[in-house]
Amino acid sequence: MTLLISRPAALTSLALAMAACHAHAEPADTVVVTATRTPQPLANVISDTVTINPEQIAQSGAGSIVDLLQRQRGIEIARNGGAGTASSVYLRGANSNQNIVLVDGVRIGSSTTGAANWSAIPLTAIDHIEIVYGPLSSLYGADAIGGVIQIFTKKGQGAPAVTAFAGYGSDNTREADATLSGATGGEHSFSYAISAAKEKSDGYSATRPGASSFNPDDDGYDRENVSGQFGFQIAPGFEAGALFLHSKLESQYDNGASAYDVRSKAELQTAAIYGKAKFVSNVDTLLQISQSEDKGQNWGGPAASDYSRIDTKQTDITLQNDIRIGEDIVQVLYDHRKEEVSTNGADAMNRERTTNSWAASYNARRGASLLNASIRRDNAVYGSKNTGSIGYGYDITPQLRATTSYGTSFRAPTYNELYYPGYGNPANKPEEGKNAEIGLRWDDGVNTLSASYYHNKLTDMLVNTKPCPYAGYKGGCAYNVNKALLEGVTIAGATKLAGINLTASLDLQDPKDETTGKRLQRRAKKHGNVTADYSIGALKTGVELEFSGDRFDDAPNQNRLGGYGLVNLYATYAFNQGWSALVRWNNIGDKQYDLARYYAPPGSKVFAGIRYGYK
């Protein structure tokens, strides 16, 4: 019995006190896709879901998608420096490789680490984001233990439109982007959106004194991207389309006092073609063929041995049928995924594997009751895994809903954990998760409040053990030895008082390695956000507070990272003719804190820009 469970009265009081707080209040007509793999009004979704809309992204002034996600409930980050450096995103305490990341329905991530390369994802290309918390392996397969984050790039609609942005800020940071989008009308309509952007910054020193790799020089980055979406309405009920994203990031990092320009290059590419058909009036069929590539190069010094290259590629073929029976939806899915790895180093890593999956789900509404259920089977070289979930929601009143759910999930062993010489072992099994949660949501059109409790039990956790228990291995290696518990309460809400919009969230959690009794690395027991904004005519001003308790940088919990609180200010002003201006000042107190030991997060930074757009 944990502290989170043993103090229900304290949590109830906190929930009431937080009734004026939420990560943000979504409009009642918001439609989300990720929670059920089909468009649904947010009001009909049982899973705890957050959306980040285009306006929030535009006014965020964030230097990267990681900065933006850090301000959302249930999310923590770790980063080895500024916007261009290696980053991890923890969802409800789950590791980066225990969450799935999608770009327009295309799965991204490295097959060697199992995690998405967050620093290579361009914020400038993003239209909106959906975050679904909880296990979703029965819908998306391996790795959806903590949840799914889906990124949507800009899509064409309406009359031809042009948007553009140019900004400048601290560390000589420059940014510019432009988008051309629109759609033709008629029976054979054509939609299009093409975006391009470039960001460049001189940066600052990513490391601090004490790090073995410390070098006081600035570590800058150069990121550029282009993306596009195209859709053609062939006939009523029949559509074909294509989409792509290409992002390239070149960034510097520290590797001691060497005068050599130590740097890395990362490329993220996604592409897909799809067809949607309605052969029968109540059946929607989707066929999509997609591919994503995660390429990395590293120059750690002047010698040839200091150069490394790791390229991973994923190819997916998905066939999905949504069958409508009255207001109910039965979904039947087949998915084929092929992963390929190519490196300039260990030959044992240069291989491929395939996963074949079958899944089915059912979503229904009966009066005040909501129900969903799903099952899935994945077959791969690491064995076959069956997962399932069931959720129920009940509208106690038109404003108040109670929800409960249970789901199983798993994480597939990565190529590193299976094949890396001296570390991996082909006998490693998937990690498994069993999650139960309950929640309450209140929304009267003015005030919102939500509270969720989750209990996610993980077994067969893959960790680095030493000495390695397998003959022929030296040092530590990956082995299914640990158990963990991801348990917590998330409280969020929003209201408007005296013209001031108030939003906030609070996470109380206990992410624990149950085998050792230690807290999981770089995760706090409490963290949250508070935002207040006020509009006077065309001027909108706001203040944000980000806070976190202490964390530990290592598994034995010996190196403590102190808690912190950050205050950010922003203002936007809308001119006539579609022009607007943004000014943002992050960390106004120049708070010194740690997201990773000996690595320096951004200090006090100012960014300003001009945006033009019309629709």
Automatic annotation (TrEMBL):
Against InterPro entries, the record matches this protein to: Beta-barrel_TonB (IPR000531), Beta-barrel_TonB_sf (IPR036942), Plug_dom (IPR012910), Plug_dom_sf (IPR037066), TonB-dep_rcpt-like (IPR039426), TonB_box_CS (IPR010916)
Which parts of the sequence belong to the TonB-dependent receptor plug domain? 47-148
Q: Which domain of life is it from?
A: Bacteria
Q: Where is this motif: TonB box?
A: 30-36
Stretch forming the signal peptide: 1-25
Q: Where in the cell is it found?
A: Cell outer membrane
- Keywords, in A-Z order: Cell outer membrane, Ion transport, Membrane, Receptor, Signal, TonB box, Transmembrane, Transmembrane beta strand, Transport
What is the membrane topology here?
Answer: Multi-pass membrane protein
Q: What is its main location?
A: membrane
Per UniProt, residues of the TonB-dependent receptor-like beta-barrel domain are 171-588
Homology family: Belongs to the TonB-dependent receptor family.
Indicate what this protein is called per its UniProt record.
TonB-dependent receptor
Source species of the chain: Duganella lactea
